[in-house]
């Protein structure tokens, strides 16, 4: 859900993923080859992005132009309501979305970006329990000449999101 990809029906044949499952023929139009590669990898792991549609919702006192993003996750379709989309910039060095996750009803902020930028934003608990292993993987991938991208998310309360909207909309 943290991407700008547009799915378009394709004339090509239906294809089979690495798990032997038949997948519909959709072509992903992406702003970058990295973004498309990430979406294709997700598709091969049974996270299939199939639709993006404009929507308008009321959140507290705010009217939001948002998007409904449909993702088939291991055979079940879910419509994520993306409230806010913060684009990647060379200054931010990350892309973020604020959405409502239909699987649990919670509001979440998803972020993807450069490892150092994501590292600055994760909790001390995550740094203590997960970062050493992650850093080892990043170093190995860099030594192999591979590009890396880190992803993180955080659950936020309805009140916290509305307070953020109050400052963001001004």
Task: Give a description of the structure.
The chain is of the alpha+beta class and 170 residues long. The chain is built from five helices and ten strands; from the N terminus they run E-E-E-E-H-E-E-E-E-E-H-H-H-E-H. It has helices at residues 33-44, 115-119, 124-129, 131-143, 158-169, and strands at residues 6-9, 15-16, 22-23, 26-29, 47-59, 62-73, 76-86, 94-100, 107-113, 150-156. Strands 5-6-7-8-9-10 form a six-stranded antiparallel sheet. Strand 6 and strand 7 (76-86) form a beta hairpin. The two termini are 25 Å apart.
The global form is globular
Number of strands: 10
Number of H- or I-type helical stretches = 5
CA-to-CA gap between the ends? 25 Å
User: Spans of 5+ residues with little confidence (pLDDT < 50)?
Assistant: none
What is the share of helical residues? 25-40%
What is the gyration radius calculated from CA atoms? 17 Å
Series of secondary-structure elements, N-terminal to C-terminal: EEEEHEEEEEHHHEH
Largest sheet: 6 strands, antiparallel
How do the strands of the widest beta sheet line up side by side? 5-6-7-8-9-10
What percent of residues are in strands? 35-45%
Average pLDDT: 87
Structural class computed from helices and strand pairing: alpha+beta
